Amino acid sequence: MKQKLQFKEQLYIGMMVFGLFFGAGNLIFPIQMGQEAGADIWLANVGLLTTGIGLPFLGIIAFGISDSGSLMDLGSKIGRKYARILTTVLYLIIGPLFAMPRLASTSFEIGIAPFIDESNYQISLLLFTLFFFVFVWFFSRKPSKVLDYIGKWLTPLFLILLAIIIVLAFVKPMGTISEAKSLSIYQNHSFLEGFKIGYNTLDAIAALAFGTIIIESVKSLGIVKPKYVALEVSKAGLIGIFIMGVIYTLLSLMGAMSLGELPINTNGGITLAQIANHYLGNFGGVLLAAIVLIACVKTSIGLSTSFSTTFTDMYPRFNYLTYVTVSLIIALIIANVGLTRIIAISVPVLMFIYPLAITLILMSLFPKFFENNRIVCLSVTAMTLIASVIDTINVLPETIIRSHAGLLLIISVAERYIPLFTLGLSWVPCALTGFIIGLILKMVINNH
Q1: Phi and psi (nearest 5°) for 259?
Q2: Which of 44, 230, 249, 441 is deepest in the core (most CB within 10 A)?
Q3: Are 133 and 322 in contact (CB under 8 A)?
Q4: Which residues cross the membrane (predicted)?
Q5: Over the range 402-430, which residues count as b (16 or more CB within 10 Å of their CB) and which as e?
Q6: Number of domains in the chain
Q7: Does the pLDDT at position 36 exceed 80?
């Protein structure tokens, strides 16, 4: 029985981990942060890495430490019904209802839209997304091949193409980091701003979605015993997350250096396109289109595979290929609604699910602190659920909030009494409160 992967095998899985996580958003966020942070980029980048790679890595090792093969297993410590609901909602969000449509729309907006006439926008979007999801469908048909498709082929190709722009940016920099002007918010809160950007990548949710794929990939290479699976999953996760951290850092510095030639733009996609054009002219636009397309396709393949595998296990009435096909058809329809609308609709849902995902990860990582007691798990989850509802209300459209006095009252009370509410992190003090209440209840019950 195999106890350890060869380094080559660890590298393949590490590359797959990186490829699964690193979509177009991960490409754009650090560039934008670099432009806004300017000379204060170093501390902002530390903040980005803290949450941008720290939370996903914790999510990966949570599966290994808890000996869980799926999100259902991970959530069952709270309750089977809760685990089923959480898993269903999370995979729908990370799959056909938000993440996959956003990936297709983003790759179109950055890679294709600049080359077409505005009058042909809608039909071009439809044709592109149709091609995009047919391609994803083709490579999602066999989940056992995900390691080959993403780890051995698409991720290396993505890194090679991205390296062309990165190397040019550092060999012939547009400006110096020390002379780049910072926005005032970064001058005073650079770490916190970077921390929030890493948090908003939502990769902690992706870690829960991709955990099954990573575990199955390790097992497919001959590692079967749980403790060795856990170790190899952690090693591969560390490789993938390390690559992610390096790319984040380089892109952040590129953004800061670009201020020598470029203005601060409204998003990192515009800046990245301008950088590519600065060094490579028209070819830069073609190269960037290829980079973004590969980034989105590889992540979409991972999402489609993990969604369909999970739903096949949970709802076996339909087979794997049916779930792949139906999920991609739904994603195709939603992608044609437009990127702005997709983001506007999905933000409240993500604010609701994200804290529940993070607290589940933390409870899975540190069960010894509370003897893996179900009462503590329930208490933490209940308090986090309250915070999630309040945070969700806070990001609803203003027209909805202002038309309901009850919603305004909830927000007013939360602003006054819940720490970190204005940062969208009210779940942190609420979860801690739930943990303390759970420990007290555990002691009271044990003493009777």
Answers
A1: -65, -15
A2: 44
A3: no
A4: 12-29, 41-61, 82-101, 121-139, 151-171, 197-215, 236-259, 279-297, 318-337, 343-363, 375-397, 417-441
A5: eeeeeeeebbeebeeebeebeebbbbbbb
A6: 2
A7: yes
Pair (250, 374) in one structural domain: no
Is the dihedral angle over the CA atoms 366, 299, 70, 358 positive or is it negative? positive
Q: What is the pLDDT of residues 179-202, one digit of tens each?
A: 999 998 999 899 999 998 998 787
Residue 2, beta-bridge partner list: 223
Rounded CA gap, 165 and 275, in Å? Answer: 8
Using the structure block, give the residue that is written with the tokens 């290994």.
64
Question: Is there a single domain that holds both residue 178 and residue 110?
Answer: yes
Domain residues for the domain of 349 are: 339-447
Q: pLDDT band at 156, cuts 50/70/90?
A: very high
What are 223's strand-pairing partners? 2
Residues 248 and 169 in one domain: yes
Nearest alpha carbon to residue 165 among 284, 262, 35: 284
Q: At what angle are helices 405-417 and 374-394 packed, to 10 degrees?
A: 120
- CA 189 to CA 40: how far, in whole Å? 9
- Which of 312, 336, 360 is the last residue in one of the domains? 336
Say whether both 260 and 407 belong to one domain: no
Q: What is the CATH number of the domain that holds 21?
A: 1.20.1740.10
Phi-psi sector, 264: left (phi>0), alpha (psi -120 to 50), beta: beta
Are 263 and 349 members of one domain?
A: no
Give the tens place of pLDDT for each residue, 204-244. 899 999 988 999 899 889 998 888 888 999 999 999 999 99
| Residue at a domain's end among 305, 336, 367 | 336
Residue 422 maps to a domain: yes
- Name which of 127, 97, 125 is nearest 110 in CA terms: 125
Rounded Cα gap, residues 139 and 151, in angstroms: 13
Sign of the Cα torsion 306, 87, 13, 168 reads positive
The predicted pLDDT at position 1 comes to 65
Is the pTM for the entire model greater than 0.85?
Answer: yes
Burial of 242 (0-12, 13-18, 19+ CB in 10 A): middle
Each residue of 375-387: pLDDT tens digit? Answer: 999 999 999 999 9
